[in-house]
Every structure is written in structure tokens, then in C-alpha cells.
Amino acid sequence: MTGICKSFPGVKALDMAELTLMPGSVHALMGENGAGKSTLMKCLFGVYRRDDGSVLLSGREVEFKSSREALEAGVAMVHQELNQALKLSVADNIWLGRYPKISRYFPLVDEKKMQGMTRELLSGLGIRISPTAKMSTLSVSERQMVEIAKAVSYGARVIVFDEPTSSLSEGEAQKLFGIIGKLKADGCGIIYISHKMAEIMRICDTVTVMRDGRHIATAPSSELTTDKIISLMVGRELGSRFPERKNKPGEVLFEARGLSGVNPRLKDATLTLREGEILGIAGLDGSGRTELLEGIFGLTELSGGEMYLSGEKIRNRNPREAISRGFALLTEERRRTGIFGILDIRENSTVSSLGKFTSFLFLRDSKRSEATRENIHAMKIKTPSERAKISTLSGGNQQKVILGRWLLTDPKVLLLDEPTRGVDVGAKYEIYTLIGKLAEAGRGIIVVSSEMPELLGICDRIAVMSGGRIAGEVDPGRTTQEEIMTLAAKYI
Amino acid sequence: MPEINEDRERNDGFFVKLLSGARERIDGFRSLPREDKARRVREFLLNNAMYIIIITAVIIIAIIEPRFISWASIINIISLTAAKLPIALGIGGAIVLTGTDISAGRAVGLTACIGASLLQMTGYSAKMFPNLSTMPVFIVLLAVMAVGAVIGLINGFFVAKFKLHPFIVTLSTQLIIYGAILLYLQIGNNGGQTLSGLDSSYLDFVSGPLFRVAGIAVPRYVLFSVIITAIMWVIWNKTTFGKNMFAVGANEEAANVSGVNVFKTIVLVFVLAGIMYGITGFIEGARIGSIASYTGQNYESDAIAACVIGGVSFVGGTGKISGIVIGVLLLQIIFVGLNFLSVDQNMLYIIKGAIILLACAVDMRKYLVKR
Q1: How far apart are CA A5 and CA B359, in angstroms?
Q2: Which value does ipTM take for this structure?
Q3: pLDDT over 90 (residue A104)
Q4: Which of A200, A338, A473, B362 is 20 to 30 A from B277 via CA?
Q5: Which of residues 227-256 of B touch A (CB under 8 A)?
Q6: Which domain holds residue A392?
């Protein structure tokens, strides 16, 4: 892949990106979130159409229009979030869309042949799963193996792994590495996307680092060190990525004691939040961070524990009660639970505060427009007008609109779940500035984030979650990533 | 039909702006390369396919049969539109929620039966309730609205509480209501017959002349429809409930997180729809003058078609009252026009079905993800 360019409205996501993959090798693709790794892969698989550049497969120019086309040409991807037909069997999932037929003249599915082919395929890879097992009964790791087997069944020569170990245990990861080794020995080229340095150093032959949509460096992994890769990835001083903070934590504002959810991921979490404080919550995926915020906000049911707001015992049975008490929740999945894609910015901004704009039973549109314009101005939202559809904005600007929605409810406690996910670097800085200003105004803010530098850069205090509990608290000024990771693994 | 003003930012310079805007667009279009021009024209034709087909149809019909654009015909079309408007306004809300309501027609049938049975002439031989003296028309109107509301409440409750798809819920209630209609018609002296012999107070209240144009009476229910449309416009655009309805339709989960009472919103949308069916039933009773078990049958298909033609999308979260009004009007123009051409009644069903299918397909094109 050479000279790949791709622009979205307002952002140049890829700028002359490139990657060369040799057969029989494992090639790590690295970069911070938003560096353009996934965009590059999406251009390869035809999810996006590249604006410029070329992709050569064994010397032949290709442009896939869909991942299906790519798969048929021998280019496969094992996604981070697997997209499989859970109600069907393993064999069904592998042969879906090209079931073996009994004969040309009798086009019924040849179950027996299919089972046999599946068994052969799986044993060839050293995977021990029954072809007739239902997908939903398998573990994430096993489902991933099925996905790999499917790629192999298409005769894939290039397989892309997108953070394959993010939800695997150590033992499962070992098994995966074994399979990757086998694929490599068979002459497959493998693109391996991961943030985990140790794995990269262990299984990859070559490393390519991307930053801000550009190709930064490619080198054999034997010539690189973890520190070297990080400095290539970050490429600038860490300090300048975060605004200076002027907030001063005051009295205790909110307290949660022993919160447990009906969802077993949250059990016995205890924390306190002060006025004007930015509290970070670190932890691995699945450690119950999102569940904690959702539990506090009344979005999911709590099974135990107590909450106190300014010393008064409270219970949020649903988001409406939480909002009326001054809570606000910025959700993790903006598209699914944040924005109303089909509606305009004004509707998106005022949906939580319609009561404020009502007089004599009727809404005052002029006031709603005015408040929305104020938000657009204050948060530097890039849009032609407050009546533009929110789906036309970039991720960062959408996020600012949703933050603005909550500001209109004048919240005391802001719960921000991955506030900068899918947001470009410039907008990130602006969101950090905004968070700082809100804390300065005396609001309490809880930030959940998977990006360690972000938590270290903007928080007054970091609580680390592990297995649904708060495993410990650290001071961002003095802690190290190792200390946080140790705490994160405490209750696993 | 007075024009409903959708544009809130209208001011003195509006037409000036509109004109200069149009000129800019024409100039912009001229400067495009030829390929893009062809694409733009194609897009325009496809996106407005429904309107173009209908306008062309009207012109052709008017040429073949000039009586189609006589006063009598125009007032007929307006009256029919007014009669079918409330049910479409009700269903429109359900469609905004990405749902539908196929119990609407039967709900109209039941409310029409109840309304008519309470308003038969005293002394009419087959009167369902022979001992019932003539009831005040207005009380009966409130009663059928209440019956409609109860039907809507049941629909909405099952949709909101059990997260069932409205199609399944209303498919079931549709059958239940039909059974109720058949049973109701068995009551008293009626014995399953068609309800007729309606009291003149009812007939006058609904279909009495509002005023006359060129000697042809415009019925009073046209005024009812105008009032109802205005009320619905206010509910959709100027109330918290209306905005919540669009929010739930656009993204139910986000609406919940944003503090919208999703349950209440869904139930209210269906209750409001039920009230609209009650009003439609009340109007239909007097308009047709005799009510049978099949009254109201398939009314929902016309109403859904009208909504889709008018741009209330099954994608959810979009739609305008003015669109529904135009949708109902265009559909009635087509039906009346086809009658003028003496098209077979049975053929009408085929045409109706094709219109719904085409309208949905054209509508969906707008929302398909383009990359």
C-alpha cells in the first residue's frame, strides 16, 4: 500500500500512508488511537474508498469494494469486535454464502461434506472445536479462532488482526500466537494491530508506526525497543497535549459506597468525588468502569450500595431522576447512545433541557436556537448553522454538541465515558480545556478512559478499577504506568 | 386547506432570499461539468419521483376528462382528504417512532359503530338501543375519542413495556377489535345488521354545509380536519412531548440517556393516534351514513401510504405534518382521478400497493449510507 490518502469533512485522516507486507512475516502496525491505523485498514477492505494512492497485491493493483471482495481475493481481517451469526453453528459461520452443495443439479446443502471440511480445516490449524457447536456457546477466544479458520478456508494470503488479544486471557493469547506462527510458516503475510508492546516484540518481525495519518517509520522489530516505538508513536512532548489546569478540588460532592450492579461486572465499588475535581478511572476493558457510571446514572439497575450527593443519601432509579439531581452522562458509544443522527444540532443540544425552553406549555424555538448558538460559539463547534444535521459533523464536534447538551442541564456531577474516543487530536485538546473549565466552575467530573496518558494529563486523582471494584487510587503526578497496570490486574 | 407555515424563520426578506437563493443554485448548476449535471438531474428526478408522477397523472387526467378540475370534483377531493386526514396524522406518529399501526382501520370501524349506535334516530325500527333517547352529539364524540384512546393505550403499553414490534402488537389488536366490532353489532335490536337511521343532529354536525362554493356545499368536517391538523402541528413542533417523540424515533437509547421518558412517550404517541382514529370513526359514521362490520377496513394502508409519500420515513425521527397533509391530498387526487378514468375498482388496490412500494423505495434511497 503506497501513498494512501483519505479525507473526511474537516479532517485529513490519511496522508500518504504506506505499508509493505512480505509473505511469511508478521508486521505490526502501531500508532496512537486516531493515528489512522483503522482508517488505513478500512481503505484496504473497501469500507472507505481511498482518495489517492494504490494497493498492490502480489504486484497487481487492487481496489476492493467490500470486505467480501477482499476475502475472495485472499485478504481477510479478524476484527476486534467479532461479527458472527451467533445462533448458527461453527461450520455454518465458516461456509456461509458458499455452502457446499450435494451436486450441481441437486442444490441442497451437503451437511456431511461441510462438517468434514470444517473438521479438516480446524484440525489443520490445531484448533479443537466441534464443527456443530453453536457459536453462542463458544468463548471469545474460540470465536476468534473460527474467524481465523474462515479466513484460511478462503485461502487468505494476507490476514489482518485488529487488537486480537484485547479480550483474551494470557493462556488464550498463547494459543493465538501458536496459530499465528503456523499461518506465518504457511507463507501468510500478517498485519498485526496492537497496543501491547510485549506481544509486538515477541511475535512481530517488522514494525510500522503511524502518526496523524502519516507513515512515520518501518523497521525490523529486532532493531527497535519499546521506548523507541513509543517516542515514534507520540512524536512530541507529552506535556503540550494537555492544557494547564486551574481547578481546585473542594468539599466532598459525591460519594458511592459499595455499588454493585445487577450486571455482575460491577461489584462493591467505592469512590468519592470533590467539588471542582477531575477524577480519572483507569482499568482494563470489562473491569466495570462503564457499568459503574451507568449504575450511578440510573441507566442500569444497582443491586446494592449507597450513594450520597452533598451528604444526602440518594438513589437514581432512572436517568431522569439522575438528571434532575444534576448528573450528566456522556456515553462511551456516541453513535449508539449519544447522538440523534437524523436530527439537527439544535434538537440534539436541547433534548435534555426542553423544560427550560417551555413557556405556557409551548416550546420557544428562538430561545432554543439562541442557546444552541451560544454552545456552538463557546465550544468552537465547526458547523455552518445550528440547524445542520449532527451526522454531518466530525466525531470531535459531535462530542462537543453532546457535552453542550449536558451543560444546558447545568449538571453538578459529570460522568464522562471515553470522552475523546474517535476524536481527532485538535478537538481532544479542546475537550480537555472544556473539562478543565467545568472543574474550575466547581463541578465534579469523573472521566473513564482507556488512554493512560490522557488520564495522567488531565486528572487530579486516578482510581483504578479491577474486577468491578476500585483496586486503589494513585496520584497522577507521581504514579507510573506499571503501578496502574498492577492495580488494574489486582482482582482478576 | 390553509397552508401550514412550517418555516419559523420567515421574515420580510424571505422571498427575496428565496429568489436569490434559487438564482445562485441555477448558476451553480450551470457551472457543473456535464457528467455531474446529468447526475444531479437524475437525483432530483428520483428524489421527487412521487410528486412528478402524481403531477403528470393529474395533467393527463385533466386533459382526458376536463370535469376532473371542476369545482364539484375539487371540493370532493378536499372533502375526502379531510375525512382521511386524522387517521393519517395518528399513524404518522407511530411511523416517526419507526413503528406502524395496522389496527388503525379496525379502530376506525369500532368507533364508527359505537358512535352511530348511540346516535340513531328515536323510533327507528332497527335501533340498537331502542330505549336510548337522542344523546348530545358532542358527548358521543368524546366517548368515541375515549374508546380510541383506550385502543391506543393497549397498543402503546405492549409496545413500550414489552419492547414488542408495533407490527405484531397492532396485528393482534386489529383482530381483537374486529371481533369486538362483530360482537357489538349483535347487540340489542341490531342483530349483526348494518347500522343506519342516524339522527339528523349527528349528520348535520358532521356533514352539514360549512359554506358553499359555486353552489356546492363544503361539509363541516373539513373544518374539523383543519382544526385537528393545527392542533397536531402544535403538538409535534411546539411541545416537549413532540420533541421527545422525534428523539425516541431517531435513537431510542440516546433518548433514554438524555432523560426522555421513553415509555411515556411511546404510550402517548399511540394514545394520540387512537384519539385520531376515534375522530375519524366519528366523521366516517356520518359521512357514509350506514356502518357495517367492514367499515374502516384497510384505511390504515391509505394512511401509511399518505405518510410515506409525505416524507414521514420508516427510518424514524423524521416527518412533518405538512408532508402528511400533502400525502393524503395527493393520494385522494390519484383515486378520484382514476375514478374519472373509469379504472376498475379492483385495479385500485394494485395501484395503491405499487404506490406504497415505490414511495418507500424512493424514501429509503435518501438514507442509504453514501461513501
Answers
A1: 38
A2: 0.82
A3: no
A4: B362
A5: 234, 237-240, 243-244, 246-247, 250-251, 253-256
A6: 240-488
pLDDT digits (tens, 9 = 90+) for A380-397: 888 888 999 998 888 889
d(CA B81, CA B93): 18
Cα gap A442→A253, rounded to integer Å: 10
Chain B residues in contact with A362 (beta carbon < 8 A): 234, 238-239
Kindly state whether residue B18 falls inside one of the protein's structural domains.
no
A residues 364-393 closer than 8 Å to B (CB): 365
Chain segment B44-63, per-residue pLDDT in tens: 877 777 778 778 888 888 89
Nearest CA in chain B to A317: B259
Contact B255 A351 (CB under 8 A): yes
Please report the pLDDT score of residue B218 as a whole number: 94
Give the domain range for residue B222: 82-297
For range A126-154, the mean pLDDT: 86
CB contact under 8 A, B259 and A336: no
Whole-model pTM: value is: 0.79
Query: Rounded to a whole number, what is the distance in angstroms from the first to the last CA of chain A?
Result: 40
| CA–CA–CA angle A180, A181, A183 (5° rounding) | 65
The reply to whether A331 touches chain B by the CB within 8 Å rule is yes
Q: Flag whether residue B257 sits within 8 Å of chain A, measured between CB atoms.
A: yes
Domain shared by A314 and A211, yes or no:
no
Sheet (strand A269-274) strand order: A269-274, A252-261, A302-309, A312-314
Residues A10-68 have pLDDT tens digits of 567 788 888 888 889 999 988 776 678 878 888 888 878 888 888 888 888 888 888 88
**Residue for cell digits 455454518?**
A92
Q: Specify the CATH number for the domain of residue A159.
A: 3.40.50.300
Cβ contact, residue pair B251, A340, below 8 Å: yes
- Which of A204, A236, A268 is the endpoint of a domain? A236
8 Å CB contact of B250 and A340: yes
* Chain B residues whose beta carbon lies within 8 Å of the beta carbon of residue A329: 257
Structural domain tally of chain A? 2
d(CA A207, CA A201): 9
A123 CA: distance to closest CA in chain B (Å): 40
Mean pLDDT of A114-133: 87
